[in-house]
Design a protein that fits this description.
Oligomer: single chain
CATH superfamily: Winged helix-like DNA-binding domain superfamily/Winged helix DNA-binding domain
Low-confidence stretches: none
CATH topology: Arc Repressor Mutant, subunit A
Mean pLDDT: 82
Strand order of the largest sheet: 1-2
Radius of gyration: 15 Å
Structural class: alpha+beta
Number of strands: 2
Shape: globular
CATH architecture: Orthogonal Bundle
CATH class: Mainly Alpha
Number of domains: 1
Order of helices and strands: HHHEEH
Helix content: 40-55%
Length: 106
Amino acid sequence: MRPRGEVRAALSGAAEQWAIEQAKANVKPEQLRGVTWRQLAELACVGYAAARHTVKTMVKAQELVPKEPVRVPGSRRPMTAYLPAHLLMPSEKNGLDAVMRGWGHS
């Protein structure tokens, strides 16, 4: 397996740092506000284009999970907010494992 790239490691570290700040603020899990790719780029000090592309691949790898669109000053359209996957409760993770568990109970 290839090692993580510098941009991916920086964005992952920024997402973890954001999660730690949310935990220090005593935010309840259901009230967690996601972070946009633009905010992650600024926290990680990486370029916007690289961050946008890398966040897409991190979503595909299920390291980040899209939460909801948020209004951001300076953007015409709402931007998708992301949460680190380990912060979500198992019931909030939408995936094949949830479908398989539900299938057996019906």
